[in-house]
Amino acid sequence: MSQKEWTVAEAVTSLCAGSLLKGVISNPKGETPWKKVNFRRLEDSYQIEKFTQKQAFHSHCDTAGLEKEIADLLAMGFRQVDAWSENTAFSLKISKKGKVTLLKKAQTTQTQRSHNREKQYLLKEDTNIPPLIDLGVFTKEGKVVQSMYGKFRQINRFTELIRDGLEELGQRKLKILDFGCGKSYLTFILYHYLTQVRGMETEICGLDLKEDVIAKCNQLAQKYGYEHLKFQTGDINGFESEEKPDMVITLHACDTATDYALHHAIRWGCKLIYSVPCCQHELNGQIQGGDLSLLTRYGLIQERFSALSTDAIRGALLEACGYQVQMLEFVDFSHSPKNLLIRAVKKSVPMEKRKKALRDAEKLMQAFGFQPTLYQLLKDENLLA
User: Are strands 46-51 and 36-41 parallel, antiparallel or unpaired?
Assistant: First the structure.
């Protein structure tokens, strides 16, 4: 273990020369919006994840950029960096008097892997999670298949987002409706997490158009012994439920199918909504550039702007209906560009704030000639503020 006094610049340079795999920047003392910052190495870059009290923001950089990022955060008031390479653990600390120390300690790869998995993930290795075995993420012994570690992280990310919403909900019994469930691997894993890990009384119904897929899902639910997990064939548009669910999930429902799912959730007064939109084509076919025609000059720019506008309007309309809305990164952009997740929690939102959200949505719609399906559905039933 090395012991000497360093300048901040020397310590950061030495730290980043260690071929780092991941790290945590913590213990902020100055005025900073961030509570904690994580970084981890991807194939050819680093991902930076900055946390406020309720949100996470992501960016990417190379090794030189990581060195600058760490130095800037330390200058901002952070006082500690813990980082790990393949064989070394690093601890950089700045004392109250400004003394900088950088400690290095050798560790085995196995120790590092164990630290990563046990400390960070809600779904643990060495546990019986049948859907993860059938998906090929776990071996029969409950170990993560090395080539599926990225998928394992994505699944845990989804589980963490659900957990955070449940903390706001504060109840032990749940009814969940999963629109456009598809093969339902995440649905099975969610059911396992809620019932086996959290011990909650949970009923989940998955809905999809494909009869063969639904039949397979019901067979798997019986195989796993998931008594209160059911699947049925049906169209999101026009669907009716005898009992109002507490939570609606819609992952990658194509284009306006997302709007119909959100409409159902809003009119039922669902307490939690999780939506990962997909294939937002509707507004791309309506957009009128006007004075901002630069946004429609290039097809790719128009497509992306239309997709972002679609979800911005959806978020504002949810706020207008009394939801607290967050736009979160579902998975790393390097894995999938369809990585935006809308999380909405039913709250007692002041009417003035709801009206402002509606005005903001309508201004964007008017500026570009947008006529989104969700707006019309809500307006027809007088559900808007």
Answer: antiparallel
Sign of the torsion formed by the C-alpha atoms of 292, 298, 304 and 310: positive
Q: What is the spatial distance between Cα 59 and Cα 66, in angstroms, rounded to a whole number?
A: 11
Q: At residue 280, what are phi and psi to the nearest 5 degrees?
A: -80, 80
What pLDDT, on a 0 to 100 scale, did the predictor assign at position 322?
96
Q: Are 150 and 137 in contact (CB under 8 A)?
A: no
Per the CB < 8 A criterion, the answer to whether 139 and 41 are in contact is no
Taking only the tens place, the pLDDT of each residue in 191-217 is: 999 998 888 999 999 999 999 999 999
Per the model's pLDDT, the better-predicted residue between 370 and 58 turns out to be 370
Q: Give the start-to-end residue ranges of the domains of the chain.
A: 8-119, 132-380
Question: What angle is formed at CA 97 by the lines to CA 96 and CA 102, rounded to 5 degrees?
Answer: 80
Side-chain-side CA neighbours of residue 50 (13 Å) = 12
Using CA atoms, how far apart are residues 10 and 100, in angstroms rounded to an integer? 10
pLDDT tens readout for residues 329-338: 875 434 444 5
State pTM to two decimals.
0.68
In the structure encoding, which two tokens stand for residue 179, read together?
A: 């629109």
Q: What class, spelled out in words, does domain 132-380 have in CATH?
A: alpha beta
- 159 has pLDDT over 50: yes
